[in-house]
Amino acid sequence: MDQIIHIHSSFSRNKFIAVGCDTYSSVEGSLGHSYATACFSLCDSKDSVVNGSCSGIGCCQTFIPKGVRDFNISVTSYNNHTQILDFNPCSYAFVVEDGMYNFSTLDLVNLQNKKEFPVVLDWSIRNKTCEEARMNITAYACKDNSACRDSDNPPGHRCYCLSGYKGNPYLSNGCQEIDECEDPSLNQCISTKNCLNTVEAINVTVQRVTVATEEKAEQVVLLKINYHCGQNLSSKRKEPTGQDVSKIAIFVCCNAGSSSCTSFSSNPYWLPKSVWEFNILRNHKIEVLNISVQGQLRISIEAAYDCYNEAGNITRRARSILSVPKFPLSYRQNKFTATGCDTSTLIQGKRAHTYATGCVSYCVKHEDVINGSCAGIGCCQTSIPKGVLNFRASVGSFSDHQNVWNFNPCSYAFVVEEKAYDFSVLDLADLRGVTKFPVVLDWAIGNETCSDAQKKPETYACEDNSICHDSDNGPGYRCNCSDGYSGNPYLANGCKDIDECAIPSLNLCTHGCKNTPGNYTCYCPKGYKGDGRKDGIGCTRIKKSHIGIAIGKCWHRRYSLACCKFLVYLVLKERKLIKLKEKFFRQNGGFMLKQKLCSPEGTSNATKLFTAEELKRATNNYDESTIIGKGGFGTKEHYQ
């Protein structure tokens, strides 16, 4: 039976992007109701634009909402590009598959003559859920060894092959079984011998030994120079030495078992010059939530808001402002976010140059909004550029919230740590009473690169078993513990060796594990051979001869009469077998063949005569899978 196919723009695989330095662009259309979202891109010189960055300086981007069936894109300019005409005469806007466009400063001229971009559409079967579709088994699209999943870009459903199968779930016998044993990346067996392919699963025939250990929590000390957490600094009122000032302090004490940190109230020269500026946060009464040794400083700042009454008059309004001259906003861990159904917001400030970006959030009714979605319907979001040391966020309305006042009287805008905020339709009323949000700042040591800092060992901050990384968000450098170590790289002996053997998830050993400085080695127990690694050949039991086993047993039993008789029997049987092989070798012209092969008249490509033991080893004990014509390709083994 023919199926009805529904097609929508993919919200998870497309982005709306605008390019230009004097650019405002919007995308609007329908998804059962009207929607609209937008972004701003501004810059005053080509030097302020960064290749690959689409955070509002030369390039901006935002998400596509769910369920979009059509869209109309418009792009305009604030000042007709008059101030930037020499390097950016045009603005561009387009929807493109995420990952298929990488912004370049060359795009500011003419988009490098690109006229078309790939866009992903989602399709689904009919307009029924899986549960509804199964009620009509003759029309049900999912075939054998497949399952049904409701479309996340409604309406309809889609089919997919079950785990352990691959292929086309819409065809009879379209989902074919995967032989996981043939592909080492699909199984956890030590070797193909130990793997048995089964329907929908893998059976591993080798037992594994798991060592359970109790993990130990370790207090990370975030202080250096000559202090200890909790020490009374007032008793050490002295002029700091050059050595004191040269060392890096993280200027807080964290209470054991608590994430709360408090700054020292000591004279600022007790801190090294590279971090004296931390006092700026205290002077501006900025709340510090946490400081990490990985180079992040978490603070709390207030949101901007714009509220109206039913008549459309402003009842209250505020901006969100932050200025931290030495601590740039983390462009990786923060997002600029706005909530509201009649909302236009702008964030602007200075890096090396002036920057500005923003987004638009629009919706008609409460039911249009989706929890967790920040794609322009009730909530919009954009990235933060690199190197931002200050910002001013403001928020406004198109229609004074008169059309949405009954469920959304205010617009809000704020910078927030990306993982710390999840949009809810409840935020449209009053942001659930939240007024402050966590923001991540990046900190680094001094203004030098690693290569320059390492030339001055008396001031170099990275201690033993650590490595140096140049900051990617402003000047300076940071230290990290080397691989195989953890702790505080700014403390003497602060990076401690990790015992990978004590934590099963950190090693790949099948049996024995030995910890080494910064690493570990695997080994096999007595009676086994191999490298002992899950990603290697593992461990296999060493085969012993029958005579050796018998001798061992006899020795253990102090040469009992029965044991000795049995040993003599085995020795005679083995000797008889050897003589029988020699007899057959002589009868079948073995010596003549050997003499012919060793003759100087033979060529350099003379055939080599292999013993039975060598043939057994070369053919993996005469494994039938190595026979040519029966699935094998033969074997080749070199002998000296």
UniProtKB/TrEMBL annotation:
InterPro entries: EGF, EGF-like_Ca-bd_dom, EGF-type_Asp/Asn_hydroxyl_site, EGF_Ca-bd_CS, NOTCH1_EGF-like. This is EGF-like domain-containing protein. Keywords: Disulfide bond, EGF-like domain, Repeat, Signal. The keyword Electron transport does not apply. It holds the Pfam family EGF_CA. CDD domains: EGF_CA. One of its GO terms (molecular function) is calcium ion binding. Residues 497-531 form the EGF-like domain. It comes from Hevea brasiliensis.
